[in-house]
Each structure stands twice: as structure tokens, then as C-alpha cells.
Amino acid sequence: QVQLVESGGGLVQPGGSLRLSCAASGFTFSTSGMRWYRQAPGKERELVARISSTGGSTTYADSVKGRFTISRDNAKNTVYLQMNNLKREDTAVYFCYAMILGEWGKGTLVTVSS
After folding, report:
1. For residues 39-62, b (16+ Cβ closer than 10 Å) or e, as one string?
2. Is the distance from CB of 84 to CB of 66 less than 8 angstroms?
3. Which helix (H) or strand (E) segment is 83 a member of?
4. In whole angstroms, how far apart are CA 47 and each of 25, 27, 74, 76, 83?
């Protein structure tokens, strides 16, 4: 059965850093492009970052460019989101998404607050 399990969320101060992980199983992870989305309360879910199946190509939303880095380790079936210089507006539930399947994880909450 397909599973995408996010972890690494929590409370962090503005300017701090956090690394999210998404562990994948139940499909051939190395053939799927992956994405990170986020959704704040009362707002639309937005695309944050995406990465190709090999990890050779990445793209970012303008709001996180230069602060966030998406990466993957196909040997571990895991995609990561390194978040640096966090801002209060980054507070949201973060979800990973497997493009080849159209499947979502359940999300992990990131709260940026002093």
C-alpha cells in the first residue's frame, strides 16, 4: 500500500532552521517526481518546491527561494525540505506529494513563533 509519511515539523523561532522528511513506500520512489506543498489555516494549499525523479532539477516558490532547499535520497526512499531563515508566514502544515501517483501524505505542522 502506498504511504507517504512526513516528519520533522515543530515549533521554531523566526530566523531558525528545520528539516522536514517524507518517507515513501509502496511504489517505485526513484521514478517519481516529488513536491512539497503547505497550507495555512483558512488559506489555499500552495506549492512550495518540486524535484525531478533523479534530483537533477528543482524549482521553488518565490516566497521561499534562497531559504528552502528540496533534496532526495533514492536509496532511502526519502525526500527532504531544508528550511532556513524561517519567517512567521512560513507557519503551515507541510505535505509531500508523489507526482506519478497523485498521492499525499497526512502532513507535518511547522509553527514559527517567538
Report:
1. eeeeeeeeebbbbebebeeeebee
2. no
3. strand 78-83
4. 22, 22, 22, 24, 15
Q: What is the mean pLDDT of each run of 10 residues along the chain (114 residues)?
A: 96 98 96 97 96 97 98 97 98 97 94 97
Phi, psi of 54, deg, nearest 5: -90, -15
Total residue count of the chain as it appears in this document: 114
Residues 15 and 86 sit within 8 Å (Cβ to Cβ): yes
The residues near 108 (Cβ < 8 Å, ≥ 6 apart) are 6, 7, 8, 9, 20, 93, 94
Residue appearing with cell numbers 511547522: 110
